[in-house]
Structure formats: C-alpha cells, structure tokens
Amino acid sequence: MKQKSVFVCTECGNKSPKWMGKCTMCGSWNTMEEEIMTPEPPSKGGGISLAPAAVPKKIKDIDSSCEIRTSTGMSEFDRVLGGGLVKGSFVLVGGDPGIGKSTILLQICRHLGKSASILYVSGEESPNQIKLRAERLNITTENLKIYSETNMNYIKNAIASENPDIIIVDSVQTMVNPEIGSSPGNVSQIKDVTSSFMRIAKDNGISVFLVGHVTKDGAIAGPKILEHMVDTVLYFEGERQQSYRILRAVKNRFGSTNEIGVFEMESDGLHQVPNPSEALLSGRPDKNAGSCIVCSMEGTRPVLAEIQALVSPTNFGNPRRMTQGPDLNRVLMLLAVMEKQSGLHISSYDAYVNIVGGFRVSETASDLGIIMALASSFRSTPLDKGLVAIGEVGLTGETRSVSFLDVRISEAEKMGFTTCVIPYNSSKKLRRFDKIEVVPVRHIRDAINKFL
C-alpha cells in the first residue's frame, strides 16, 4: 500500500501536507515534524463499524456501585486521586526531570504489592537501576515485577502472560509501536501507545500509571489529546534544589480537581507532609518588612503560604518585575492598581515577589496579601506576625469577596494567627470566631493605612 508523508505539530497534533515554520493551529514555531503515514484500508458499512457487544443501556440500569478504590498507603497520594486508586483507572503523572515521579510510583508499590500484582515497565532504566532505587526506598514486595522494554508488541504479550492488577509505564514517550514508521516520542507514537494502554486498562480492569515528560513550558510533552484520553492528570511541582514537592491534580474523573498532596524529598524517598501550612511557614522571621501570609484553597484543603516582596530603587531606565510562585501578569496588574489607587509611587522601583517553599498560587484570593507585602517593603515597615490577608482586588482598588472564607479563616485560627483582613462585603455572612480578630476593609488604602 502506498505510503505518504505528512507533517505533524508536536505540540497540538495539527497535520499539514507540507512543512511550515509556524503551526497554523497553535502558533508554535519549529514544531512540525515529518511522519510516514500508511493509510488504513476502507472499512465496510460506510466506514462505521460497531462491535457486537456495544449495546446502548438505559442510565437507570447502569450499576454505579462497582467503583472499587484501593489505598496506596500514602494518604497525600490518595487525596489527590480522590480517595484512593480506582480499579481500571488510567493515570498520567508529569513533572520536571528528577522531581520524583518514578520515586513516588515505586514507593506506592510497597503497600499496593501486599494485595495486588504490579508490572513495572521501564523504557529508560535497566532492571539493575530500578533494583538499586528499590533497595534505597526499602521496597521488598514479591508482587512487583520489573520489565525493561519499549516495544509495544512485547509489552502486550508480557501483560497477557502476567495478568497484573497494576501497570506502571516509565515513560510513555519511550514506548514505540514498530508498525508505525516514526521515531519514539513522536505524535503518532504517543497517541497509539496511549490508546493501547487505555484499552488494556478499560477492557481488563487494570489500573495503569503513565509517566510523562514535560516541555520547557511545564506542559506534558506530546499532543494535548494525551491528557484528554486519561482519567487523571497529576503534575509534580517544586524546585529540585528545594525539599518540598507538590503533587497537583489538574484533571480527575474520580474526584475533585486542583487537589494537592505535599511531600518532602529526603534521602530515603518522599515523605508525606500532613500539615502543609506548618511546613511552609516554618523558619519565618519575626520583624522583616515585605512579608505577608495568605490562605489559598487547593481543592478542599486550605493552605497558608508566605508572600515575600522586595521593592527597591532601580538603577536602570525600566524597573524589573519578577515573580516566583504568583502569576507575573497578575502581579503587574496589582502594581498598577497600587500606583493609581493607593498613592504609592512604585513605578520607579524594582519589584520582586516570591512564595516561600516553591509553592504556587494562582487564585485571586491572594491579591490583598501580595499588595500588603509590596506596600510593607515599599514603606520598610513590617506587618504584624499574626496577620493574614485574604481577598481579591479589583482595578479600582476595591476588595472583592472570595469563596470558602470560613474555611480559610478557620485554618488561620488553627495555626495561631490573631488578625485576618478580609473584604468588607464578606463580613456579614461569616460565623463568629473566638481566637482571631476579623477586620473587614473596603479598599486597599484602608488596609495599607491601618496596618502600615
């Protein structure tokens, strides 16, 4: 059968009959790669084929009580999965190199191996390398088998002969179907390999973990359809130079999204951090200007984090703005609001904003805390150590209400904070707190003038 050449974008999967420097679909540069496509023979019946067993069912006749969950032995990992590992689920784990993806998947084998058979398919490491890591992590289960292979035909045969309960694939970009004439990690290879493992998981009730590489932008390498095909997408966040790691669920068909699990990397593997707020606030200085505490909701969990800001006169014509943790565009907007609405002439100053511990905050409830930290550094006046700031800030400088305010204030009260600054509109709906003073403010000027 005649083969033809097609160019496929490695970012979005867009196809083109000729090479282009810029993808017309996603706008990425130099991502078009040539692939040899073999057209499939036309199927009978107008190109549509239905399996004989595919019979439509009434929704009332479908049994929804068959969802079986198994604990991984790590409560933080169970939280991110939505309460445990679901039988037949398809989970994708992504993150930077060396962040701990392979380590945590090998660690959960210690508990899962007590009642389930596990097949660890490695396309990057030899069995000896995995054995050395398992010894370091003190994993001695007999139900864990290592299979170092990248050919999907051999892997399918091994799965059929071993019939495992759980499969771990490290990594999906190294697996290859020899029947497809393209290199490993290509768009066609990733789509075919992922589709094969999805059919294995759903047809046989086998839970499958896929390890995925990420691009320099932090996204899973390969087409976006990879994330659409799986049931759960987990991202490992954090800096390799720091000990804390955050496992975040950005998609979960069996639980809530944006749930996080916090771990600490030590010499013998990843250890759970049951109280992230206490860990992120440890070592906080007493009287330093430019520090403010915020409370972020990560799924159903409130997490207290320290915002640090440094405002200093610039030596250049254009001041620098840098962030580590908050969104840069959001911080630039808040700096403009401060310049216009609070009377703080900060436009000729460099501004740096950081969240301690490598934590990332994307929700707008941290706006008021960021502004308070910037104003504290600008005026060289430290905030009270027992102060927490929660609230969204509009373009006119007004404070806006946020969700789950009761839960956030309760977390701050539990951690020993004495004052909580909140939007004025939210104060009427709050319950009474005994150990923390709730201070409502209408405008950022009110908060800055009152506490600085």
Descriptive notes:
The structure is a single chain. The strands form six sheets. The protein has a nine-stranded mixed sheet, with helices on both faces. A four-stranded mixed sheet has the order 15-16-18-17. It contains eleven helices and 23 strands. It has 452 residues and is α/β, with parallel strands linked by helices. The model is unreliable at 41-51 (pLDDT under 50).
Distance between the termini: 77 Å
The amount of beta strand, in percent, is: 25-35%
> Count of DSSP E strands?
23
Largest sheet: 9 strands, mixed
Order of strands across the main sheet: 8-7-9-10-6-11-12-13-14
Report the uncertain regions: 41-51
Give me the Rg, rounded: 26 Å
The helix tally amounts to: 11
Chain-averaged pLDDT:
88
The helicity comes to 25-40%
Overall shape: it is globular
Q: Structural class of the secondary structure composition?
A: alpha/beta
How do you describe this structure in short?
This protein is of the alpha/beta class and 452 residues long. The protein is 25% helix and 27% strand. The strands form six sheets. A nine-stranded mixed β-sheet has the order 8-7-9-10-6-11-12-13-14, sandwiched between helices. It has a four-stranded mixed β-sheet with strand order 15-16-18-17.
Protein traits:
single chain, four-stranded mixed beta sheet, alpha/beta, about 25% helix, nine-stranded mixed beta sheet
Give the SSE layout.
Elements: E1 4-9, E2 15-16, E3 32-37, E4 69-70, H1 75-81, E5 85-86, E6 90-95, H2 101-112, E7 118-122, H3 127-136, E8 144-148, H4 152-162, E9 166-170, H5 187-204, E10 207-212, H6 225-229, E11 232-237, E12 244-252, E13 260-266, E14 269-272, H7 276-281, E15 291-298, E16 301-313, E17 321-324, H8 328-341, E18 349-355, H9 367-379, E19 387-389, E20 392-393, E21 399-400, H10 405-414, E22 419-423, E23 437-441, H11 444-451
Parallel strand pairs: 6-10, 6-11, 7-8, 7-9, 9-10, 17-18, 19-22, 22-23
Antiparallel strand pairs: 1-2, 1-3, 4-5, 11-12, 12-13, 13-14, 15-16, 16-18, 20-21
